[in-house]
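Proteins fold. Shown next:

***
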Amino acid sequence: MQEVKDKFRESMSRLASGVTVVMTEVDGRPWGLTVSACCSLSMEPPLILVSLATKAASTQAIINFNRFSVSILAEDQVEVAKLGAKPGAPKFFEDFVETDDGFHYDVKDALANIHCRVEQIIPAGDHTIFIGYVENVLLGEEKSPLLYFGRQFGVFNTGLTG
């Protein structure tokens, strides 16, 4: 079984994905976790899915506050992605965020910031799936996205200028 797990982990590193930061609050401060397991789930009603490690501080914080934000990162936001991806390290985001409504944190200069309230929580192996009801979306400047592939951050040239 370990061989299957190792090959599965490697196979998932070969699936290119957009880079998002799931924002919540820990100890009264903005906290962000970089995730690639994020996708739209439904347009009617507007739902988004994010999957977080069950043991992550973000997971318990989202359960407690019943809301979260998803920030879609642009190509020039590698440092933001790296901060939220450090295993076992604090992920306080004061330098990278702003708040518009007092309930959600937005990563500055992200391609989009999506504000959600928790619609459903689903335990799944060592992760917890959150289905968020989208309450608001703030669109940023249209530019190239930050991607994750082969355990590396990179860009895809869309021809868009920033």
About this structure: The chain is about 20% helix and 45% strand. The longest strand covers residues 112-124. The two ends are 46 Å apart (CA to CA). The first helix runs from residue 2 to 13.
